[in-house]
Amino acid sequence: MLxxxxxxxxxGAGPSGGDAPVITGLEAAAYVIPTETPEADGTLxxxxxxxxxxxxxxxxxxxxxxxxxAGAARAVIEQVLEPVVVGRAALDIPGIARDMARAxxxxxxxxxxxxxxxxxxVALWDLKARLLGVxxxxxxxxxxxxxxxxxxxxxxxxxxxxxxxxxxxxVERDRIPRVKIKIGEDWGGNVxxxxxxxxxxxxxxxxxxxxxxxxxxxxxxxxxxxxxxxxADYDVTWFEEPVSSQDLAGLxxxxxxxxxxxxxxxxxxxxxxxxxxxxxxxxxxxxxDVTRCGGITEFLRGAALAAAHNLQVSAHCAPNLHAxxxxxxxxxxxxxxxxxxxxxxxxxxxxxxxxxxxCLAPDPGRPGLGLRLRHADAEQFRSA
Length: 384
Ligand SMILES: [Mg+2]
Description:
Oligomer: single chain
Helix content: 25-40%
Strand order of the largest sheet: 4-5-6-7-8-9-10-11
Number of strands: 14
Distance between the termini: 33 Å
Bound molecules: magnesium ion
CATH class of the largest domain: Alpha Beta
Radius of gyration: 20 Å
Number of domains: 2
Shape: globular
């Protein structure tokens, strides 16, 4: 039976019709999944990944979204967002998204607040598509049937054999024509090893696969320019966060002096953050993360903002969440097929997509995001 109401909830823009399904529940759970081996990039090391899952219910359907964040995002969902969301008309996402953002005013939208909001927004889109019986890609409208991906990992902790195996898997087994490795090891303190790992990657993937690097903000601006000159022999075409993405002037300065595309945006917590990156001339390609920027709602708006400035967008991490929204974005360049996240998504979700052939293709026969959390498999990772 559909739970219905003529009211759209507190702060809502108005009724959505007497038969409109109403959100009857919003829950959150956190899961902590160990990595296979210790992992690191230029500026951070980790041995586990926390996934916070939001579940929204309406009209006998359940929508699921998630974010890769800290367990604190669960508390923000439960304490701050749940009262805003429950009782609202499930189809009216823009109003709910606006009111969730408003509710975060004193809590802080950037960081944990944005991750919590993002997980809920994604859950709402999944829920809406399920209520309407269509895939999210079709609800949004498709610009393409499948999204190109690039293989992403190449952690600084990997030895030569691990690096070879991962790169070979993407290029030869999965036939993905683009890969990315981490550089900037030890906050730019080991450029010699960065360069030898870039050389190794190019050797393994051959001349025709695109090679990307990500320094995670590990270099200074002048150092990044010198590194870019050193890697010219290896045809690197994407230089992600050569300096901190908080250093807009630094990104713009590097961008003006190097050949690879400069990319950043994984810490865009809002449309305003994306506008600042674009306005500073900091990026050749804007990265957006549906689990951080404000969900599918803000991903679409960020992509439109980029389009207005003749820029493409690239989806950061969480590949299975980006397959659908990426399908709907005309100026999408690609989706990051991040090793940690694809591993978690394939292990814990029915319907996780394969990158074979270098693309993710949303299944037209599965409603919503086409994914179902396998609770029995996830339970062992659940955080108290
Ligand atoms: Mg990155």
